[in-house]
Write a structure and sequence with these properties.
Helix content is 27%, strand content 24%. The chain starts with 39 loop residues before the first strand and ends in a 5-residue tail after the last helix. The chain is globular.
């Protein structure tokens, strides 16, 4: 006979399933099937490399269904070999905020230190210091990441594996996933026949019939927005009338992925090697299925190919043909032969019983488009490009996937906010929040091109004290300084977006005293346009330590981060009044679920009880109230005696900062970003 009676709810079944990101609220009318059978989507994405696949995944997580969004890719599947392999600390922070970082962090190779090797120094009598003969010697070690970051390392892992992780995440939200083996043909703006879905997109899908004969089927769909993530040879970009503008240098590099056999002591560290015979960058790679570890070599090929980028000149075709011919003669054997010369007296080769995983030859080029979007006749931005479609650069600084994926990260929430009617727009349909995509990412692309041009040029040059003195060359110390100074940009942690509708500096000093003190912005000092650095705080409700960034996961929502002063429990305290206004008056004015409140409070000698606080705090933010030590307040530049209120954008960047008794400034900012609830 049973000793208890069990009663359960049907909701219990959901508790054993993986959790899903909550969709953003939708104020606009959902998409409906066209009566005439025309295929219509709110967003069409072309390309499913890292940028396109990341964008499609984010759009689906934010709530766009298969009826709203579709992604086409020409490849039959995810990447199998080669191409990008490195992720920077800021990209890892973003992936962590999406709960996608575990496998990447566990299975990747972590690069925590960089070794610099240079030609052996000559002693006074002209002899080479060290063992007989010329060669290289280690000059210094430096940390790979020298800025404040949650992850103090870069990681390397196969791009195809990252694509597979993103694809699996997408399939949790999209039953259809990516439409593969489908080539984008062209698009046209045709608002006359359908002003709401003015873009006509034509694609061709390759299949095989029952007999195995290849066939091709043309398909035309209509869209509100089109995003080209189709790489450096983007057809979407060409359809927009845009060109990649910039320069291609005469430096040819070979890249090789292989299991190596070497006596070089730093083969499992990231290395920058300069020798009289050329330059090499060593990138340690992840462990593969055989239990062995891959290594990637970037090797400078001593062969000049003078070219100038000019897409309209006939001479450019000749230069491109010549360049392609020169690159085509590069083999993995020639890459290794050059590597052996540069790394003398050390030896390096392919491990017996293995074959090279992948190799290629490329020329260094830094190019970008002058615009990242195309407007229709009404001035509404309809077509966007991300990733290599709008900027290309060398792989030396490890920015390939990172900047491309961050383009998509910036665009995704702005696009969904516009589609869902969350962000304000003019009577003509112009959306100023969506327009900040081009403004912000163009700024970053220009910084990328400038840094990569400088860094690649230096890396391809020779480093020696004599050359530096006699010919204006570069010393090791100068190269090292540029490497370290650029860490804020290359890590992604020093990115700063310019002033805009989304980035508002504090409106002057409050009561003749700055709201935020200090200027160590890389170290965490809060500044509009910069990311919120991570800190460890203690959740009051359960006393568990938490990463602050984990409390601001990427769900497309704004956060109000309230730093209270020490006297929150005192009657009439400004911080307490601020929280009451936020909970009971301000947040309810906006669409439900698009604003989240996080509360930080300094530690106290005696614990407070919930009843000592305004009731709305436990009601609205019980699991988002944290104890933050004085060191946390200090690193963010917040006066622990005054507090501050910070609006954090959906991408984790500071939008604005205001005083706890100046919530009018907060409301003015929010009104620029969000519509009021009806």
């Amino acid at each position: 006979m049973p000793v208890f009676t069990e009663t359960s709810s049907s909701w219990r079944d959901l508790r054993v399933l993986p959790s899903f990101a909550p969709p953003l609220p939708r104020l606009s009318q959902p998409i409906e099937a066209a009566a005439d059978g025309t295929e219509k989507y709110e967003v069409v994405v072309i390309g499913a490399g890292p940028a396109g696949l990341f964008l499609a995944t984010l759009l689906a997580r934010y709530g766009l269904s298969d009826a709203s969004m579709i992604c086409f890719d020409s490849k039959p599947g995810t990447l199998k070999a080669g191409q990008a392999d490195g992720l920077q600390p800021r990209t890892l922070e973003v992936l962590q905020s999406l709960d996608l970082a575990h496998e990447i962090l566990t299975e990747s190779c972590h690069m925590s230190e960089v070794a610099f090797w240079n030609p052996k120094k000559k002693v006074a009598n002209g002899a080479v210091n060290g063992s007989q003969g010329a060669g290289i010697e280690r000059t210094s070690f430096v940390p790979d990441v020298v800025v404040d970051a949650r992850f103090k390392h870069e990681i390397t892992i196969h791009q195809g594996r990252i694509e597979r992780i993103l694809d699996e995440s997408l399939r949790r939200y999209s039953q259809r996933g990516i439409i593969r083996s489908t080539d984008f043909q062209h698009f046209e703006l045709d608002p006359t026949s359908d002003p709401e879905y003015p873009i006509k997109v034509t694609v061709n899908t390759s299949t095989k019939d029952a007999s195995g004969t290849p066939t091709s089927t043309s398909r035309t769909v209509r869209a509100k927005y089109l995003v080209g993530a189709d790489g450096a040879h983007s057809r979407v970009r060409k359809g927009m009338g845009l060109k990649l503008e910039g320069e291609t240098t005469d430096h040819i590099w070979g890249v090789l992925d292989f299991v190596c056999d070497t006596d070089f002591p730093d083969i499992r560290k990231r290395c920058a090697i300069h020798a009289d015979s050329g330059s090499i960058m060593i990138i340690p790679r992840e462990r593969i299925a055989t239990g062995e570890y891959l290594t990637r070599l970037y090797v400078q090929i001593k062969d000049e190919i003078p070219t100038d980028v000019n897409e309209d000149a006939e001479a450019e075709k000749v230069h491109k043909a010549t360049s392609k011919q020169r690159r085509s003669v590069v083999t993995y054997q020639s890459i290794l032969a050059q590597a052996t010369k540069v790394m003398y007296p050390y030896k390096i080769g392919v491990k017996a019983g293995t074959e090279p995983d992948w190799f290629a030859a490329y020329q260094i080029g830094q190019r970008m488009t002058p615009e990242f979007s195309l407007k229709d006749a009404e001035g509404v931005e309809r077509v966007f490009i991300v990733g290599d479609a709008c900027h290309t650069h060398s792989p030396k600084a490890g920015q390939g996937m990172n900047v491309s994926m961050m383009d998509s990260y910036n665009l995704s929430w702005k696009l969904v906010h516009a589609i869902n009617g969350i962000s304000p727009q003019s009577t003509k349909g112009l959306n100023p929040i969506l327009s900040t995509f081009g403004e912000e990412r163009l700024t970053i692309a220009k910084q990328l091109i400038d840094f990569d041009t400088k860094f690649s040029s230096m890396f391809s040059g020779q480093i020696s004290e004599a050359e530096a003195v006699e010919e204006g060359g570069l010393t090791h110390d100068e190269f090292l300084k540029i490497f370290l100074d650029g860490s804020g940009f290359t890590s992604g942690c020093g990115i700063e977006y310019p002033e805009s509708q989304l980035v508002k500096s504090p409106e002057g000093a409050h009561k003749k005293q700055a709201l935020i003190t200090g200027n160590n912005f890389l170290g965490g000092t809060l500044k509009p346009g910069r990311r919120v650095n991570d800190s460890i705080v203690t959740r009051y409700a359960d006393a568990n330590p938490r990463h602050l960034q984990d409390e601001m996961s990427s769900t497309g929502r704004y956060r109000i981060l309230a730093f209270t002063d020490r006297h929150l429990t005192c009657t009439g305290n400004p911080s307490a009044d601020c929280l009451v206004q936020l909970c009971d008056s301000i947040i309810p004015q906006y669409p439900a679920g698009v604003l989240e409140l996080l509360i930080l409070h300094p530690p106290r000698k005696q614990r407070f009880e919930w009843v000592d606080l305004p009731p709305c705090i436990k009601r609205d933010a019980e699991m988002r109230t944290f104890i933050a030590g004085e060191e946390v307040y200090s690193r963010y530049g917040v006066d622990i005696g005054r507090g501050a209120v910070v609006v954090v954008r959906p991408d984790g960047y500071v939008g604005t900062v205001c005083a706890v008794d100046d919530l009018e400034t907060l409301v003015r900012y929010l009104d620029c970003c969000l519509v009021r609830a009806s």
